[in-house]
Each structure stands twice: as C-alpha cells, then as structure tokens.
Amino acid sequence: MHFKGRVMLRAGSSFLFFSRGGGTQRLLHQIKYNNQPELITTVGKWYGKQLMGTTLWDGIDVIVPVPLHWKKQRKRGYNQSAVFGTAIGEVMQVPCHPNALLRVTHDKSLTGMKRLERVETISSSFVVAKPGLVRNKHVLLVDDVLTTGATLESCAIALQNLPVASIRMVTIACGEL
Predict the structure, then answer these.
(1) Which of these, 44, 132, 57, 127, lies nearest to 89 by C-alpha position?
(2) First to last CA, the chain
(3) What is the pTM of this model?
C-alpha cells in the first residue's frame, strides 16, 4: 500500500493507468490545460458507475476534491478534481464539496520532483476550510493523478486531524508506484 503507515486509508483506486506518452497522458493534458471539463465529467460518470458496482465504496457521506490554489484555478478556469468529484457524486448520489479543503500555498509545479521533494514542498499546503462538511464523515478524497502520493497524503492528514470517520481515495489515473 502506497500510504501504509502514513494515512489511515480505507480504500484507494484509480480509473486509468498513466504512462508517459500514452493515451492517458494525452487525456489528462486535454483536461488540465485545454479547458475541456466535459471530458472529465464523462470520465467521472463512468467511474462513478464502476464504484457503485462494489460494496467497497458503500457508505460514503461526502466527496472532497483536492483543491487548487486560487491563482492556478483562475489560470485554468476550473479545478479538474472538483469536476471529476462532482460527476462521481451525481452518479453515486453523494454530495461533492469542493470548498471543504483549502490550498493555502501556491507552490511551484510538482511535476518532475522526487517523492521527498514533493512531500517537503506540499506538507502543510492544505487545511480543512469547512470542518462541518466533513467532521466524523466517511470521505471520498478525489484527485486527477496519483504519482508519489504527496498531495493526497497531505490532504488526508489534514482531514484525519479533524477527525473524519474514514478516508477513501480515487484518482483519474495512477502512474507507476
């Protein structure tokens, strides 16, 4: 388990496998950089249907997307993780709260950094902005890509400190771990 010993994770899954130069990378670039939220909505709805097919994902109370810093969100026009989470929530009939977490630092891109660099860069970047939305609830944390896990780990630690009842994670894609 990628988060073992660091995060109390009940379950984790990714919809696609990421490899450099592959179709998943092209899809993610369209989603992140070419203002195509309809693609992420379609992927989120497909994935929501798959998640509903197993009891592992039963009992989720709230979906919490990994937030972007407001400067990055303004530049992109939307938060791809929030669009993904909203689509999953529509299918699973679970509320998505994109403002439950807040990214308080505007770090440089984590792309290309090793795990330790990422952890050091992002370790205190997230806070629970709206505790009432997640306290003592079963949370599904969603993000676009799992690479080293540093971003999801930082978000999960912020949630655990609240506390929440449980944390499960899903991403659009996962790279080689």
Answers:
(1) 44
(2) 10
(3) 0.87
